[in-house]
Amino acid sequence: MIERTPILDAVTHALMLLGLVLAALPIVVVFVASTHDLATVNRVPMPLWPGDHMAENYARVWDKSRFGEKMLNSLIVATGVTVGKITIAALSAFSIVYFRYRLRMVFFWLIFITLMLPLEVRIVPTYAVAADALQPFRVIAGGFGLELGIPQINLLNSYAGLILPLVATATGTFLYRQFFLTVPDELAEAAKMDGAGPMRFFIDVLIPLSRANMAALATIMFVYAWNQYLWPLLITTDQKMATATMQLQKLVPGPLFGQPPLWNEAMAATLMVMAPPLLVVVFMQGWFVKGLVASDK
Amino acid sequence: MEKRAAFSDLRLAGALIAPQLLLVFVFFYWPAAQAVYWAFTTQPPFGGSNEWVGFQNFEQIFTDRVYWNSVGVSFLFAGLSTALSVGMALLFALFVDRRLTGYRVHRFIYFWPYAVAAPAVGLAFRFIFAPEAGFVSAVNQWVPGLWNPALDGKDALALIVLANSWKMVAYNFIFFLAALQSIPRPLIEAAAMDGAGVLRRARDIQFPLLAPTFFFLLVINVTESFVDSFGIVDITTGGGPARATDLMVYKIYSDGFKGLDYSMAAAQSIVLMGVVIVLTFIQFRYVERRVHYS
Asked: Which one is predicted more confidently, A102 or B85?
């Protein structure tokens, strides 16, 4: 620092340490609780050093809740949302920025407005649409007096139903648009001069340039999709399609008569659910922060 | 902004943007319109098509004391957790930005909580603050019955505020620190040369330059508390005890999917949408200003 401020420095260190404890303690407690047997975990206050029942607790809850299947579902959904979002956002931003047509600002605003209403505030009707995905088209065709025989597509209990509504937002599109606007015009001019068509320019010039952008978007989308809770809870009734976060609801220890609550298993499950996004953030912190700050969400 | 070198293949342009427009139409605009339709209609008890009832659904929720309770709890929750998480984050960011030895470790770990899923935060906090196990219930050994979120509404509200703030402090910290680190170092050094102490520099340089970030985070935090609190409430309190933590999002869920009253849930959704839209407008106005000044 600039001047010598020994007292303030001591205060700073103490406060930073306090912050560290506040941030890390809940995670540590979850870990410690997941390593004790039932009697120890229910002692008040619980001891803060790890016990030696870790392996059996995790194995038990893994089998009992079929966590393998659920983690796989969460992984499929998170990957699907990430890939889908990046692809669709890049394509639509390319269309809006690099093509000249009258409707493009209208399209941009149509997509941009979706930032206003998160999925949580419109869950009831979105659920109805997911139960019958082509319903909007049938109603509109019906409005024109047409009977097209549009089939029913039910997205409940399917990966498509878990993934698609989470892809239908503007986060990535906006990020890509901002990035494409900073790409120098000369690149596109040179590509056109050399006879490259739009798709060639997109694949060989824009995609490689936007790699950093893509990594940032991928980390935040993965964490966002993995941590989804309300939507999967609504749309899946079949246990085979359940995601890992949903399982936590079933593991909240209830008041069982004559039996202490199974906090050690609940905490083992909590740690397993929080681990993948935490690992993404720990190992890709740079990208994650970049994505977060750039997309403002 | 216009690109000088633009392509003109309009069919391709349409094909590129079609998937996104299709998704947005099916999963955003249609449901939003549907919510409006349901809010002004009601389903007859024995099936058949919906009947138009005007503002009756809204009258019904606005004369319902349970609904006003939920609105009050939501605003209280939003206010408390925003004040707590923005305040704490600002404090920690200011101290970490002094860049004493080891600040990188702190910067690294402070923001882990943001990666944790809301229901996982909920379950962890439910254990730590459980009345019959965990840590906090140790106070009950000295003063029996002092802490019990399962019975006392205030304790339950405190529990969800703490859980939500733990997660949001991490988020706010990132933004405050990024803003602090973008303040040019020579500016701070010049002020120090002129004899301005740490507090003076914070008051006259750092706080004014942080103002846009501060305002932005206030809006984001309030919005998030209205929207993203479902996972925490569902795991920790389930809206109870005696509806003391019955947030608006949670009530829409329980009326719509447990009570199966779509019209009531839709009317409540419209009100919540209104709140979120107003907040987002404030934020967009501000974002424009920030772009202008930077």
From this structure: B85
Q: Which of B74-79's residues contact partners 24+ apart within 8 Å by CB, and which partners?
A: B74/B225, B74/B226, B74/B247, B74/B248, B76/B157, B77/B157, B77/B160, B77/B161, B77/B164, B77/B225, B77/B229, B77/B245, B77/B247, B78/B221, B78/B222, B78/B225, B78/B226, B79/B222
> What whole-number distance in Å separates Cα of residue A143 and Cα of residue A153?
20
For residue B292, the model assigns a pLDDT of 41
Nearest to A26 among B124, B216, B269 (CB): B124
| Omega prior to B241 cis, within 30 of 0 | yes
User: How do residues A3-51 score in pLDDT, each as one tens digit?
Assistant: 778 888 888 888 888 888 888 889 998 898 888 887 787 777 778 888 8
Task: Examine residue A24 and state whether it is found in any structural domain, yes or no.
Answer: no
Looking at the structure of chain A, the number of domains it has is 1
ipTM: 0.86
Task: Identify whether B140 is part of a domain.
Answer: yes
pLDDT given for residue B197 in this prediction: 83
Nearest CA in chain A to B277: A116
Lowest mean pLDDT among A11-15, A73-77, B135-139, B208-212: B135-139
Of A135-139, A213-217, B74-78, least confident by mean pLDDT is A135-139
User: Does the residue B231 lie in any domain?
Assistant: yes
Residue A84 has pLDDT above 90, yes or no: yes
Range(s) of the domain holding residue A152: 66-295
Whether B89 shows a pLDDT value over 50: the answer reads: yes
Candidate from B5, B27, B123 with C-beta closest to A270 = B123
- Would you say residue A25 lies in a domain? no
Q: Which two tokens stand for residue B55?
A: 């503002």
Which residue among B26, B120, B134 places its CB closest to the CB of A273?
B120
Chain segment A239-273, per-residue pLDDT in tens: 888 899 988 888 887 665 666 778 888 889 999 99
| One-letter amino acid for residue A85 of the chain | K
Across the interface, whether the CB atoms of A248 and B123 are under 8 A apart is answered: yes
Which CATH number belongs to the domain containing residue B289 in this structure? 1.10.3720.10
Amino acid at A105: M
Domain CATH for A116: 1.10.3720.10
Q: DSSP letter at A206? A: I
Domain membership of residue B139 as a residue range: 56-293
Contact yes or no for A1 and B99 at CB 8 A:
yes
The CA distance from B91 to A11, in Å, is 12
**Percent of chain B residues past pLDDT 90, beyond the cut:** 19
Contact B251, B272 (CB under 8 A): no
B174 found inside a domain? yes
Domain count, chain B: 1
Which residue type is seen at B134? G
Residue B45 lies in a domain: no
Which residue in chain B is spatially nearest to A103 when comparing CA positions?
B14
Per-residue confidence (pLDDT) for residue B38, from 0 to 100: 82
* Contact at CB, B127 and A168, closer than 8 angstroms: no
**Hey, are the CB atoms on B10 and A13 less than 8 Å from each other?**
no
Q: Is A12 close to B30, i.e. CB distance below 8 A?
A: no
Flag whether A192 is in a domain: yes
